[in-house]
Fold this protein.
Amino acid sequence: MEDGEEVDLLIRCWRSQPIEAPFGVNLRDFIKRRRHVGTCYSSRELPDSISLKKKLEDEMKEEGVEVSFGFANSLNAGLSVFLQRLIKPCLELAASRSSSRGEVCSSSVSMVDFHVAMESNPSILGEDWSSKLEKIRSAAPDLPSDFQTS
């Protein structure tokens, strides 16, 4: 098996697994307000667009805001793309680490992988990336304080 084929195989293994919220996303305050049990936090997966529309409507009902299916679908697709862009570099780092050990389809992504991926390309975090990067650093207390990737 050539190197490119091995990476493709590893990425295919990870694509079959559900996308989870990244480290640094604090959902505790949001979850406490929720009346519904079926959240991304509890299921560890993004909801389908119909469920997302219903949840948004329930949250916005008091404010009189209606949510169209198109809006919920666009929001869900955008969130999925964002999370995939955020998670892909972590998976690639873990894949390179696993392949150097001779492992195939290992789905172990460490906080160090996430931290290194975000430090290597902080703009992937979007606007205000510096404060988001600081939150990531604080979420990894086991990393040395002088940990640098460059």
